[in-house]
Amino acid sequence: LEPDMSHQKLDQLLALRVRLREFAAERDWDQFHSPKNLVMALSAEAGELVEVFQWSSEIESANPNQVTRDAAAKEMADVLIYLVRLADKLDVNLLEAADRKIEQNALKYPASEVRGSARKR
Ligand SMILES: [Mg+2]
Predict the structure, then answer these.
(1) Least packed by Cβ within 10 Å: which of 17, 23, 79, 88?
(2) Per-block mean pLDDT, blocks of 10 residues, the chain (121 long)
(3) Ligand 1 centre and the CA of 7: distance in Å?
(4) Span from the CA of 52 to the centroid of ligand 1 (angstroms)
């Protein structure tokens, strides 16, 4: 990424990546953003997201109230922020990586064979 590239020319995920890079740089936090630290922070935020639904029933979690939705959105944002920061550090194109993984999953789990089954293979 060119630092002087206009954000409008970048897709939203790339714009977020640059924004987070700048956020860290302005605070001199880049020194703390090793992949190890970032993945630990990501895991902690995923745990906070778990907490939002921890004691919900299946039905409650499928029909969250506004307070729960807002809390979940905050923690999802935290997870995304650390994931995007990690992707920046490891020079991973997240959307390309996700597309590749979905293609692998499609080969591993052909719809005609697994439809309606949660069984692992
Ligand atoms: Mg959080």
Answers:
(1) 23
(2) 52 93 97 98 98 96 97 98 98 94 96 88 69
(3) 26
(4) 10
- Rounded to whole angstroms, the Cα distance separating 31 from 96 reads 27
pLDDT at 120: 75
Angstrom distance (rounded) from CA 25 to CA 12: 20
pTM of the predicted protein model: 0.86
How far apart CA 114 and CA 108 sit, in angstroms, is 10
Tokens of 106: 């499609």
Rounded Cα distance between 82 and 80, Å, is 6
Residue 88 amino acid letter? D
Q: What's the Rg (C-alpha) of the chain?
A: 18
* Distances, alpha carbon 38 to alpha carbons 9, 18, 30, in Å: 27, 16, 11
Distance from the CA of 71 to the center of ligand 1, in angstroms?
9
Taking the CB of residue 45, how many other CB atoms lie within 10 A of it? Answer: 20
